[in-house]
Amino acid sequence: MAKKQKKRYRFSFGPWNIHEGADPFGPTVRQPISFAKKLKVYKELGFDGVQFHDDDAVPDLDSLPASAVLKRAAQLGKVLKDHGLVPEFVAPRLWENPLTIDGGYTSNSAACRKYAIERSLLAVDIAFELGTNQIVLWLAREGTYIRESKNARIAHEYLMQAINKMLNHNKEVRILIEPKPNEPMDHAYVPTIGHAISLAYLSDDPSRVGGLIETAHALLAGLDPSDEMAFALYHKKLWSVHLNDQNGLKFDEDKSFAADNLRRAFNQVRVLEEGGFGLNGEMVGLDVKVMRTQKQSNNTAHLSNSKRFFELLLAKVRSFNRKKEAEFIRNRDYEGLERMVIEHLLGK
């Protein structure tokens, strides 16, 4: 009997993607859903992986001794297995604690930097108890509101010190840097994947530092997400993605993938497919917000829609006429190529 082929594309999302609809201008509009009920939804929607912040895995972890934190994480790891799910990564949530008002790793306060590193090392331990070796660093408050408030050169040195401490804390951990140019800070350090990869090469073990690219974050930097993904793939450092969409250079909208710009989404899927993404176990992660207007009874449609749009675009990528494409390129007929792309997306 032929050996069953392993799925190339597996999908993940974080429990925060199913939320109550609060935004900076209004309160919640839907009832909370327990974490246990959210876990049951994953397989129903066709997802295999769960993304975690450290306090998604162990709520109120700052108030617990480390032994209790790790015990709860191990228990959750067993629950995930019972549901047929795997943890994709753990991200230390360093942007909500009062000690990180002015940054965690790059704070001007030595005490605050110490807290950020200690919590990150605990997040590494939580990840391994859950069953993953991946830590994602979204450097949310690692930046400034005014440039004169920090020495940027020294701040990057602090960042590197934190990364190296995590690498040396556990020799199997892999660190994925998730760049973003702004929000909540006015200007964030490490705004693009190029910045993240340059830090990786300077770390104590470059083979264990890579990146996670989010569609919206690349767009907020004024860059094309597919080009950012291609750059990381060239360096063999695209270890995860957060696919979504974005309507212009405003706040981080986290719209459903492909909902705003179909051609841009097509090119992201194309780059991932051509670059071998998923062949080494990488997951297609989603980071999408349910609309505030959505009713309680159907508050996961944004997740199933995003997965469906990826799969439809994947079929478009695989059915694209490469011989005809090569002919247009050879003749430098880019108007013809553009028509071909648009007609293909329109089903013509």
N-to-C terminal Cα separation, in Å?
40 Å
CATH superfamily: Divalent-metal-dependent TIM barrel enzymes
Radius of gyration: 21 Å
Number of helices: 12
Q: What does the largest sheet look like? A: 8 strands, parallel
The dominant shape is: globular
Order of helices and strands: EHEHHEHEEHEEHEHHEHEHHH
Kindly report the CATH topology. Answer: TIM Barrel
Trace the largest sheet across and list its strands. Answer: 3-2-1-10-9-8-6-4
Q: Helicity level, as a percent range?
A: 40-55%
Question: What proportion of the residues form beta strands (DSSP E)?
Answer: 5-15%
Q: How many E strands?
A: 10
Q: Write the CATH architecture name.
A: Alpha-Beta Barrel
Oligomer: single chain
Low-pLDDT ranges: none
* Average of pLDDT: 96
Can you offer a commentary on this structure?
With 348 residues, the chain is an alpha/beta fold. The chain has a single domain, classed as Divalent-metal-dependent TIM barrel enzymes (TIM Barrel, Alpha-Beta Barrel). Helix content is 43%, strand content 13%. The chain has helices at 35-45, 54-57, 66-82, 110-130, 152-169, 193-202, 215-220, 225-234, 262-274, 301-318, 322-330, 334-345, and strands at 10-13, 49-53, 86-91, 134-138, 143-144, 174-178, 187-188, 209-214, 238-243, 283-286. It has an eight-stranded parallel sheet. A two-stranded antiparallel ribbon has the order 5-7. Strand 1, helix 1 and strand 2 form a beta-alpha-beta unit. It is globular, with a radius of gyration of 21 Å. The mean pLDDT is 96.
